[in-house]
Every structure is written in structure tokens, then in C-alpha cells.
Amino acid sequence: MAYDRPMSFGLGHGRPLDPAPGVVAISQEELGTLPDDILTNPDAGRIDPRQWFPCPDRRFELEIGSGKGTFLAQQAELEPETNFLGIEWAGEFCNFAADRIRRKREADGSFMHVRLLRADATEFLRWRCPPGICSVIHLYFSDPWPKKKHHKNRVVQHRFLLDAWKALTPGGELRIVTDHDDLWAWDQAHFGIWCEPGGLGSSPTGSIPPIPADVARELGALPAQPYERLDFNRPESAREGELVGTNFERKFRDEGRSFNAGVLRKPHMAIQPD
Known about the structure:
This protein is an alpha/beta fold. The chain is built from eight helices and seven strands. The chain has a domain at 120-265: 3-Layer(aba) Sandwich (Rossmann fold).
């Protein structure tokens, strides 16, 4: 295979990284640009990411914050019939992960079912992702943004939980792992609203912000209990004693940190929004 080769040298330790845009990494031509009327026509920018794969009718999973692509590579090897899209904002990490997948493809023709996208995953879910396509959304070791003034940057927000709910298939799961206790308390406070019958009508504790008006306007289309809370079952690709086996988890285990994990499942009988 021959690709145009945008290079990156940091994580590669002097070895050029080739993310193979348009082949492994999603190119700008594939993603397209958001239309000018996106705020008045929020569905105008939807694009079906399943069409980025050779077999678009397969089960589809999305990982938010793929880092170096360790989880993607491990899990995809065990699930060759599932398409995996990893979304990573940091360009260097996204290039490293895409280069990793490219090398596996070139070695033996495998991993055609894995692709990488450099983007803000929360914005992708809100403006790009069609409803009801994700069997699983993986969110592992997201940035805790520990300072209170930065809490608005945390991934788990009311808007994110709404957009994830829309993107999931009925029975689909949002799987979350973190080592940060304060972030986990923040997550749990949100789960208490989104996972309890009638919770969306309750007032949040002072530890998290109220449901924004733009989200509240859409809640009428949701069931009284949008998510079911489940225990976290480790994927088969995790090593003995690991939850998921990302680079962050292995680093944090060496530091003696503890971990929190949970699963939010969209009920099987949930009605998809139009």
C-alpha cells in the first residue's frame, strides 16, 4: 500500500508516524465540514461513520479518547466482526494510534475494521453521529479537569448523556472507567439523575450543574428512566487483574491507584428519536 505521509516524530521516538489519512485515519474529505445553518438545522451535519468501513453493516463501537490505541488494538483483535472507531483530540496520539493500525494492516491485511478520527468526541456525538448506531461507547480515563472552574470541560455532562443516549442502539452501553475519585463523584451525581425512574425531573445536588435549557427541551422524547445502571464487566482483551488494559490504567496501577467503573445501558425498549 502507498499513502501520502504526514509525519510526526515525538511519540515515534524518531520513527516517522504515518496515520494513512483516508485509509486508517479519517480524512477531512470523508468527514466534511459542518454546514453554516447547523444551529438552526442541527441534523444538517449528520454523517454515518459506519460508511467509513469496508463492511458498514457490522456492529459499531466507538471509543472516546483512544490515546495510543492500546484498547482498540487489543479488543479489535478479538472482535473482527465489529467496526471500531477511535476518537482522539490530541493529534500526536491520534497519529500514533492510526500508525499502529496501519502497520498491522500492512503486515497481514488485518484490522480493516478499525479507524481513527481526530476530533472532539462530544461535538462529534452532538452534531455528526446519527441516532441508534453505537452498540457500545467506551469512555476510559478521561481528563478529570480537577479545578472547579474547568469542570465544564469534563466529558460527562447532561448534554453528553443525552447525545450518547441518542447515539446508542436500544440495549447499547456507555462504559466508563476512571481513577479519579472526584471525577467519579461527579459522574455518579449525573448517573443518579439519568438512571433513576423520574430522575430527570429531580433537582441535582449542588455538586453538579442543573440540566441546561437546550437539553431540557429535548427530554420529552426520552423515557422516564433513560439509562439502566449495570456493573462493569471487564472485556476479554484485558490482562489478568486489569479492567480494560489501557496505557493509562497500566501506568496508574504501577502507581498504586484504585479504579471506579460502571455501565449505563439504554433500555432495549427505548424508542429512538426521529
